[in-house]
């Protein structure tokens, strides 16, 4: 959600810090009978506090995360269904994440304190992190399988061979070979993008795993439930950008399609000849 659609001043007014400050002002105003000098001073202090809170970067991240989590569309597949489609490597990553996920919930249940009760309200947000992580694993697995069947070096050698051969060919054959080169170069471009996307996913998953471990450490004592809540909201805010990237990555496979034939051989590495040249090879 864009910043210009969010009223940070309104959010700051309804923040717990401001409510406490207003109670203090009321407590001070009663013995002073709310005289005009006090009201003017209190109004100026109240405006200054709201302005200061609304401009705080951490508070703005918290507001965006809270609004984003409310408006966030659900994923097409739930984590347990995604889990059934993961290979052994990705499934092990998901199990490690789940171990932390359930430990955080267990830490909250074991405590009977009021702070723990306040923290339990935020536990539902962990489900969003679990959904995102499962989605990341599935997309990562797709990239891994796609790239494992492609020999980029072989494609680039084929491009170089065609470019050397083009000047020696007749115009029509040369044009066909040039078109072939363009196709292969586009494939190389998409392969490079796939490698980059895979690296981004690996990094994002590592960040999310570490963030969950940090939240787990904080829930052992639950000394600051508000801080834990803001930590979760901050992670969710970052994940909002990640989910948009995941959706973009999903379209990569829709556009690319299968990269291999039934024997697992990369189609782009096979020699591609213009019609006259293909007949010579068949002979």
Brief write-up:
This protein has 283 residues and is mainly alpha-helical.
Describe this structure as you would to a colleague.
It is a single chain. The radius of gyration is 29 Å and the shape is elongated. Helix 2 (16-32) packs antiparallel against helix 3, helix 6 (88-110) runs antiparallel to helix 8 and helix 6 (88-110) runs parallel beside helix 10 (171-219). By secondary structure, it is an all-alpha fold. The chain has two domains: 1-55, no CATH class; 78-282, no CATH class. The relative contact order is 0.11. The chain has twelve helices and no strands. It has helices at 8-13, 16-32, 36-54, 57-71, 79-83, 88-110, 114-120, 124-148, 152-165, 171-219, 225-256, 275-282.
What can be said about the biggest beta sheet?
none
**Which residues form runs of ≥5 with pLDDT under 50?**
69-75, 258-283
Task: Summarize the amount of helix as a percent range.
Answer: over 70%
Radius of gyration: 29 Å
């Amino acid at each position: 959600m864009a910043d210009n659609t969010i009223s940070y001043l309104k959010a700051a007014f309804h923040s717990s810090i401001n409510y406490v400050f207003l109670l203090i002002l009321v407590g001070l105003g009663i013995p002073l009978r709310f005289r005009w000098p006090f009201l003017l001073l209190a109004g100026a202090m109240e405006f200054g506090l709201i302005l200061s809170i609304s401009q705080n970067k951490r508070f703005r991240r918290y507001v965006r995360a809270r609004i984003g989590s409310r408006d966030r569309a659900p994923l097409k597949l739930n984590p347990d269904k995604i889990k059934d489609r993961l290979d052994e490597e990705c499934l092990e990553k998901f199990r490690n994440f789940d171990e932390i996920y359930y430990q955080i919930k267990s830490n909250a249940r074991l405590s009977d304190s009021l702070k723990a009760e306040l923290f339990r309200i935020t536990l539902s947000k962990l489900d969003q992190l679990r959904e995102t992580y499962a989605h990341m694993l599935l997309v990562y697995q797709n990239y891994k399988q796609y790239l494992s069947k492609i020999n980029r070096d072989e494609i680039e050698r084929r491009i170089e061979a065609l470019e050397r051969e083009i000047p020696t060919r007749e115009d029509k054959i040369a044009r066909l070979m040039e078109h072939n080169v363009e196709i292969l170069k586009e494939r190389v471009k998409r392969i490079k993008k796939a490698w980059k996307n895979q690296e981004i996913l690996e990094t994002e998953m590592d960040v999310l795993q570490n963030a969950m471990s940090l939240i787990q450490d904080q829930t052992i004592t639950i000394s600051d439930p508000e801080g834990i809540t803001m930590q979760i909201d901050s992670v969710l805010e970052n994940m909002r950008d990640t989910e948009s990237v995941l959706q973009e990555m999903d379209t990569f496979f829709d556009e690319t399609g299968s990269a291999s034939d039934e024997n697992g051989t990369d189609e782009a590495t096979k020699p591609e000849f213009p019609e006259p040249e293909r007949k010579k090879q068949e002979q």
